[in-house]
Structure formats: structure tokens, C-alpha cells
Amino acid sequence: MWTLQTYLRRLIWVCMAPLLVLGLVALGFDLRSEQAQRDQDLQQRAQLIRQYVELRLRTEARALTVLASSLEQPNAASPAGFYRQIQAFRANFGDHVILAREGQMLMNTRVPLGTALPAMPEVKGRSAVDVALATCQPAVGDLVDGPVSKSLLLPVVVPVLTPGQATGLVLLATIEVDSLLQRLQQMTLPVGAHFWLLDSTGRTIAASDPTAPLMVPVDMLGRRIELPLELARWSLVVQTDGLAARSTLLRSMALWLIALAAGAAAAYWAAQRAGRSLGDGFKSLATPSAASLPQQDIMEIAHTRERLLQLNHLRDQQQAELRQLLTQIGHTQELERKRIALDIHDDLQQTLASLKLSATALGKADQNGQQALRRELAQAIADQATQAVQSTRRIIDDLRPQVLDDLGLEAALESLMERFERETGVEATFEAVSADGGELSVAPALAITLYRVAQEALNNVRKHAHAQTVALQLRQFTDGHVELRVVDDGQGLPPPRAPGSPGAGTDGVDGASTAPARGAAAGSGLGLAGMRERMRAVGGTLELRQAEGGGTEVVARTPMGSGPAA
């Protein structure tokens, strides 16, 4: 069995579970989207680096092609003039230019014109000079060691052509690795990302961080992008290490989890507070005192507590009334026993004693032969026996009306009204109405209850109403209910007393008033309480109200099948 707080806590967790699952799913999609965005950003940065390298190589190749075309003309410039041209090229592009033929340098912008120059260096990888002469197209080679600059260079070679064939003369633009790296490092990359520019042999031309290892394959969540260059046989590699990616994802995951944990903590706090409020409210229902009232009351619980207080007050009143009724019943039983004893002593016993004396006198008359006295005594004995029978029948009818068992409720009530009129002189009428117009039939237990209610109502009319007429109606409705109505034209009900005043009545749950009345239920109110308890025992109601035109009206209504006998 759960406490209310535990039940509410579990209920809130059950309600929160779909939201938590949805939050975790959203977290997964968010992390996946974030990783996809990071990959896309890395791809775009790699494309920008490749485009920059490609554009620089193609720009220098085109410029060299234009410069080489001046040597292909019949009126080519003199060596000094051409040397000035390649110096202008160097000033514009920042890269030195070499003019060579068959492996021998002829001009080099690094030294003055006419300076003795060494032979072209040997290339360990792709030779741009050989490719350019073979294809008659511009070519880019792998890293070479410059014999004049004493540094690593990247050659861009353009052949000098005569119509239809190469002359063996080539122009070389030598790109210094440091200058290229300096430009590339100005291009930003995501955190944790590095790039490597590799020649055809895999040697590193430039790298964003020479100390960073080039890992194949990369770690978990690391990404690697490898892009080939079109003009050169180089490749660009951009990759991120898994640590940086994991750190970013873990940071995002931590923020999500903190938000989910905060929501769960808020739900737990709300469950605790709601459970505590409801628990305090329900506890206050058991002991509804001012000290037990919760600080934040709940409307429904407050209404229920107020109703419980009313019902408890009504219960206490009804219990007190019931105790008084039981006491009165005991007293009434003793009075009834006393009355029956007096009836038997004053009526039946006297009649039987007189009958005994008459019988004794009759015996003596037989012995003396007094015929006239015998006849007189015999007639007296017969009259006294008839009187004893009538007394016995009256006493029996007071205890239990025989006509109720023999002829039913309708005949018993009619006999009761005739005897009431005969004994009190009050004009009494009786009417029985059946729903189907036939004979009215009531279960025995219900019949005796209605009979006793009518008997008590007439007894109150006899004692208190000072009425001239009284009417009793027994009616059966089509819905299966039976109604007993007793109406008198007596003094009627008194004005209602203020609540809480001595003798003030209260309305019971069945609508019956227990206020003392001068009409059909006047006096101590215990007669009405007894009638109400009788009706409640068979599932019915009793109502006392002012009759139209004055007087009092008692209405008892109950289902047809009520009572233990049903």
C-alpha cells in the first residue's frame, strides 16, 4: 500500500517519463545535427584551402605562359630585356623566376644577370620540367631543394614552344614553402582541426601544425577529408582529432542533461509539495481542528471537511436523539406494560372475578332449586364472558392488530380511523388509492411500519392538535412507492426557533424536522423521532410540514419493496 506522496511522486515520474525520453531523443538528434554541421563546416574550410592553392598555381601558370610567349616571337626581347620582364614578374607575384634549358639554369631572379648558375636540382618525386616538356602544358612538381636559395621550393613550369613543338626552354616560378604556409595559416579552421598539403610522394609541403600527427585512421568522432589538386599531383588533408570533437559533444550533452535534471528535480519538488499539501489536507479531514489545517488549503478538501463537520454535528445530534429515544422507548414500554396490567386488573381480572362469583352463585341456585335466579345468573355469566372476550380482543389489538394480519393494511387503517373517531369524537376520514385501481398490497414488514406511523401520528393529534377533523390517505404510485399522509386542521406548527436555542430542531438527512410541534407530532419530539427511525429502517422518509389552510401534515414515503420481509 502506497502513501499519497509516494503515489503522486510515481504518477509524476510516469507523466515525466515520455518527456524525459523525448528529451533524450532530442539530445541525440541535436548532437547528430551538431556533428553534421561541424563536418559541413570542416568540408567548406577544406574546399576554401584547396581553391586558394589551385588559384595561386593556375594564376602563376597563366602569368608564366604569357611571359613564355614573348620568347616564342621572332623579335623576342634581348636577354637583358627579358631579365627585366621576369624581375617584374617577381615584383608582382613575389616568387622568383628561373629560365633554364636542358637542365641548366640560364637566368635566376635571385642573382644578377650574367652570374654563373648551377644546374637544375634533381627531383625525387614528380619532375615538373619533364612533365611540361613532355605534355607541352604547364606543370607543377614536387618539393625540390633550391641550389641557389638553399630552401625548399615548389616549381611551376611552363615550356617555351615554337610552333608545334617544345624548344627545351622552360620558365620556372619557384614558390617558397614558407610564404605559402604563411598565407595558408591565415585561413581559419574549426577548433581541433589541422591541414596538411602533401606532394605526390607524401612529403608535407605545408601544415597548420607541424607537431600534430597525421593519423590514419582517425580517433573516435574525428573526421578526415582528403582533396586532390587538379593542376598538381598534390593532395590536401584536413582532419580533426577525436578529443576536441568529444569535448564539444560532451559539453552539449552536459548542458542537455543539466536541463533534464533540473526539470526532473522541479517535478520531484512539485510532487513532494503537492503530496505534502494533499496529505495534510486529508489528515485534516480526520481531525478538522484549527491546528491541523494546512497552510495552503485545497478547495475540494475544504468543502469536504466542512461537509464532514456538518455530518459529524448531525450525527452527534442524531445519536443524542437516539439515546433519548431509546430511553423514552424503555419508559414507554414500562408505561405500556403498566397500562396493560391495569387493563387486565381493572377490566379483565374484575370481569373474570365477577364471572367466578356468578358461577358460584349459580351453583348454589341449582342446589336450592331457584330457577328464576339460575336464569338471571346464567345471563350475567354470558354477559361477563362476552365482556371478557371484548377486553381480551381490545388488549390484543393494542399489542398487535389482528385485522392487519387477517385483512391487510387498508382494512387495519380503516379500523384504526373508526376507533379514533369513536374514542375522540374527531371527524376521521380514510382513503386508499392504488396505482392500477385495484387492491393495494403491501409487504408485512412495511405494513406494520406504516400502521405504527399512522397510530403515532393519530396519538399526537389526540394529545396536542385540538383538531376538529383528521384525514388519513394511503396511496400507491406507479413508480412503486407507497405514501401515507395524515392531515389535521389543528393548531399547526410553531414558529421555527433560532439555531442552537434549547429545543430547536435540526433537519435530518431524510428531510424530517425534529422541531416540537403543536400539530400531529407535537410534544417532546420523540414521537416524531420514533416515526422517522421506523421509516429509515425500511428505506423511507418522513416529512413534517404546515398543511394548507392551517394544521399539520405528516407524510411518510417509502419504496414498495422496502423492509426485511421484502
Q: Summary?
A:
With 566 residues, the chain is α+β, with helices and mostly antiparallel strands. It has eleven helices and 15 strands.
Strand content: 15-25%
Principal-axis shape equals rod-shaped
CATH topology of the largest domain: Beta-Lactamase
The biggest beta sheet is recorded as: 6 strands, antiparallel
Q: Based on DSSP secondary structure assignment, what is the total number of beta strands?
A: 15
- Name the CATH superfamily classification of the largest domain: PAS domain
Overall pLDDT score: 79
Quickly give the structural class: alpha+beta
Along the chain, the helix and strand elements come as HHEEHEEEEHEEEEHHHHHEHEEHEE
Percent helix, as a range, is 40-55%
Count of the domains: 2
Supply the CATH class of the largest domain.
Answer: Alpha Beta
- Just name the CATH architecture of the largest domain: 2-Layer Sandwich
Oligomer: single chain
Report how far the terminal alpha carbons are from each other: 40 Å
- CA-based gyration radius: 62 Å
Low-confidence stretches: 498-525, 562-566
Q: Helix tally? A: 11
